[in-house]
Known about the structure:
Helices cover about 70% and strands about 5% of the residues. The chain is mostly helical.
Amino acid sequence: MKIIMCPLVVILASYLFPNVNYSALSQPIVVGLVLALAGTMMEYLFLREGTLWMNTGMDFVASSVIVYFMTLFFIGARVTVLGAILTGLLLAITEHFTHVYLIQSGKTRKIPT
């Protein structure tokens, strides 16, 4: 689900926010895929019952930083700090609902080895 949602949210942010501009459709897709990978790793490492808001906050910070710095590698793309923060906020909102689902369904429980 994350592999589809993250690129879609970054594409949506590029249409919603005037300070998020990509010169090609592939650019926000690549950023979204990197965000999906980073988010999945963070969920696996840190998400468990009692850490919902901490993980949502970490997603916001990580997403904002990744969006801002990854855009620097694309020719013709431009994202301001405010644009990265707004995109990170949009991503954190969608991730919050994913985290709630994962915690409530018990999919975050770690099996002791």
